[in-house]
Amino acid sequence: MTTYSLPQPYLLFMGDATEAGFAKTALGLKDWAPERCVGEWTLPGGTVSTGLPMLSPRQARAEGARAMLVGVAAVGGAIMPHWIPALIEALEAGLDLVSGMHTRMADTPALAEAAARCGRRLYDVRTPPPDIPIGKGKRRTGRRLLTVGTDCALGKKYTALALANALKSRGIPADFRATGQTGIMIAGAGIPIDAVVSDFVAGAAEALSPAADPAHWDVVEGQGSLFHPSFAAVSLGLLHGSQPDVIVLCHEAGRTTMLGLPDYPVPSLREAIDLHLALARRVNPAVKVAAVSLNTSQLGEDAALAAIKAVRDELGLPCADPLRHPDAFASVVDACLAAVR
Amino acid sequence: MTTYSLPQPYLLFMGDATEAGFAKTALGLKDWAPERCVGEWTLPGGTVSTGLPMLSPRQARAEGARAMLVGVAAVGGAIMPHWIPALIEALEAGLDLVSGMHTRMADTPALAEAAARCGRRLYDVRTPPPDIPIGKGKRRTGRRLLTVGTDCALGKKYTALALANALKSRGIPADFRATGQTGIMIAGAGIPIDAVVSDFVAGAAEALSPAADPAHWDVVEGQGSLFHPSFAAVSLGLLHGSQPDVIVLCHEAGRTTMLGLPDYPVPSLREAIDLHLALARRVNPAVKVAAVSLNTSQLGEDAALAAIKAVRDELGLPCADPLRHPDAFASVVDACLAAVR
């Protein structure tokens, strides 16, 4: 499995993003690895911010940054042409570049040329390891937990990180298993599952969460959504391959349509639970949906509490927002542990 | 979209296959493009045959063959090391090589070297076209039909070819849309969907069956199975991207466990219909499962007729075996047309 040793700390490149869903890499780094980020750099027109100080590449270099990390994504994972001058400016300021985009920086001649000229390196962390096996569907020892979502970009990675940290803080052996570029940048290891050839997605998820000690938990970062018509293939391969004992369903309160697809409604939580169980039982008949992780970031405090209570009442499952109410999130952790007893 | 112009006719390389499921490329070529095949070549230990004459590469060259086509697959799509001397023998006999394996012949030094030495070409038809877009889930004009299966390698391609031919013979504009190496070898065009990076599978299926005249039918070759824990990701991306109006469910009478996975039972037809509809309705609420295409190749005639009748009685849907009873297959074609009226 490919591992990375990335130059840190980072300057976070925000591009000209105007929707937080497209800046989840930068926002994730800020939340989960703030000690590795010195600031952010936004192009004219950009409105999404991590709250870190705005620094030019030259200022960031002076503050100790060693790389600029592309913290923003375009649909399809392409490098936007109008980002390239900014990326070259960073190389010229003495920063390496780190990217999880589908399009490899190394395959972009202007960037490859500028990196060579400046003596800097391009780290494309979305390159899957070679020789991923075909999935076998064999039951493995150890516990597996998968975070899944009603949509993309609403908290599956945050929830998995919070769960892995909570398990470890209770003395339970656990690993966060990263499946996306941000998770890999945070964890320093993982497989960029949506960059894996489709025939091998389940096999990659199996390799990412191998047989382990029966008491050990792999907390696997979910990707996409079974309900997202662009990316459901990724989600199903990951669901089958990670063979979860426990699923935690992630949802954003108030989101009504799928990211990037205004014609597609977000499914109900009940619908999402039923479909995930129907598909996951194929590989693990004992699978359970233990709890709901609710992203209430668009709500005020009273509305957030009401939304959480509404989910609990409707489904009879624990529900909490791991970022807003970290203490209450213990109920979700408890439910995951209870689900395998 | 990548198209191919392959050297023909072929000698079919059967390797040492002992299970027909692993020789479906050769068997498909023999059935659907017999005029393009001069014979087969089997290694010691191999027991699967197309019924074509056994010819060495040198004999096949003398019979007019221009290429040897790798008609057999190993799990994972690898080139088995013990096949390589045979492939080199073909190059030395004056044949090009055509392969749909995941592992590219061009990336295998011994083959690349031998091809260069002999002045021959290596055609790796499982290389997807560049710049496949992300799926958008937008409704498109024209009719789309997808063949799906309770398992891999049981007749989805055959059924799609039979349906496309039948529609055309009725004067209805139709195209067979190939998604696998054999289909591409037969059709001369298509996208090898299981070689597409998982994030782009739905987009590839959309590109393969673009908006068309409202009366036109795209008959899309299914891949894998939603129930196969190794390959379900491919199947779901193809289901979402091809946005079928009509699904024809393919099944093999008497098959009890999934190909290569003896611990996994083949699902019931009812279960398969329900899951496909639940997932396909996300992109096309009007989707219908119109009929069942039953592969009865393991049964005698009386048992085959009984199996077909049992499916009809159980589901109330037309059912036929397109290879065994081509005339009766008209009822399946009728049902597909009726489903969109």
Brief sketch in words of this structure:
Two copies of one chain form a homodimer. Chain A has 341 residues and is of the alpha/beta class.
User: What's the overall average pLDDT of chain A, rounded?
Assistant: 94
Helix content of chain A: 25-40%
Judged by helices, strands and strand pairing, the structural class of chain A is: alpha/beta
CATH topology of the largest domain in chain A: Rossmann fold
Distance, first to last CA of chain A = 32 Å
Oligomer description:
homodimer
Largest interface: A-B, 40 and 40 residues
CATH secondary-structure class of the largest domain in chain A: Alpha Beta
Layout of secondary structure:
Two copies of one chain form a homodimer.
Chain A: E1 10-15, H1 24-32, E2 37-42, H2 57-62, E3 67-70, H3 84-92, E4 96-99, H4 109-118, E5 122-124, E6 143-149, H5 156-169, E7 174-177, H6 181-187, H7 201-208, E8 217-220, H8 232-242, E9 246-252, E10 257-258, E11 261-265, H9 269-280, E12 288-295, H10 301-315, E13 319-320, H11 330-339
Parallel strand pairs in A: 1-2, 1-3, 3-4, 4-5, 6-8, 6-9, 7-8, 9-12, 12-13
Antiparallel strand pairs in A: 10-11
Helix pairs in contact in A: 1-6, 3-4, 7-8
